[in-house]
Amino acid sequence: MNTLHFVALVRGDQATGYTASFPDLPECSAHGRDVAELVVEARRAALDCLQALANAGEAWPIATTVERVAVEPGVFVVLIEVAVDDPPIRVNVSLGERLVQRLDAAAEARGMTRSGFIAQSVRMNLGEQPRNDFEGSGRKLQDEFTTLARKINEAIGPNSTFEKRMAGLDDRLYDGVRRAADSVSAAMSRRREGPRAAADPGPRAPDASE
Fold first, then answer.
1. Angle 114-125/97-109 helices, nearest 10 degrees?
2. Which of 59, 107, 170, 205 could form an SS bridge with 117, CB 3.0 to 4.6 Å?
3. Do 37 and 105 have their domain in common?
C-alpha cells in the first residue's frame, strides 16, 4: 500500500461551500459544504481519477509539491492523502482469443475492467486480498441498494402484504366509525321522540259511565 499526496486548490466560503481542483489531475474536482466534507470528497475523486488512468493504461502523474504550486488570491491549499496500490505499469501479455473472450465476460459480469480482473486474479493466486477494488465495490454497493429497494417495495409497495393489511384496517375502521355514527343517530332520534311521546297521550280510553 502506497500513500500519495496531491495538492488541491480550494475556492469558496462557508455560505456557498467549497470546491477543489487538482493541478496534477485536471479532470478531477470535488465539492463540499465545509472543508471536512470537501477533503473526503476530494480523496474519493482523486481515487476515481487514478483508477480511470489505470484503466486507460496511462501512467499516474508525479505529485507536485506544495512549494511549487502558485496560489491565486482567495484560494488556499489542502494536501489530499490517497492510499493506493502500486502505480500501474503497462505489461504486454499474449493470450488465446477464446481465453480473452472468457476473461472479458467474467470481468464484465463483476463490473470490472480486463486489467482490474487480471490484477485481482493475480492477487488471489498469490494469496493476497485485493485492497482497493474500485470497480467491484461500486457494483456491489449498487446491487445491494437495488436489492434493498426491491425488498422495501415488496414489503410496503402496491399489492404487498402490508398494503393489504392496511386496506383491511381501513375497512374495519370505516365500518366501526359508520356503526358508531348510526348508533349516535339512533340515540338522537330516540331522544327527539321522547318529548313527543310524552306530549301525545294517545287515544283516550272510554269512560265506564258513558
1. 90
2. 107
3. no
- DSSP assignment letter at 203: S
Q: Are residues 79 and 1 in the same domain?
A: yes
Higher-pLDDT residue of 156 and 176 is: 176
Question: Helix 35-55 crosses helix 134-156 at what angle (to 10 degrees)?
Answer: 120
Could you tell me the pTM of the whole model?
Answer: 0.46
Helix axes 114-125, 35-55, angle to 10 degrees: 90
Indicate the pLDDT class of residue 150, thresholds 50, 70 and 90: low
Q: d(Cα 168, Cα 162) in Å, to the nearest integer?
A: 10
Same domain, 45 and 66: yes
Please tell me the total count of domains within the chain.
3
What is the 3 state secondary structure string of 79-142? EEEEEECCCCCCCCCCCCHHHHHHHHHHHHHCCCCHHHHHHHHHHHHCCCCCCCCHHHHHHHHH
Identify whether residues 96 and 171 lie together within a single domain.
no
Is the Cβ–Cβ distance between 82 and 50 less than 8 Å?
yes
The reply to whether 68 and 96 lie within a common domain is no
Domain coverage including residue 177 = 161-191
Say whether both 151 and 171 belong to one domain: no
Reported as a pLDDT band with limits 50, 70 and 90, residue 80 is very high
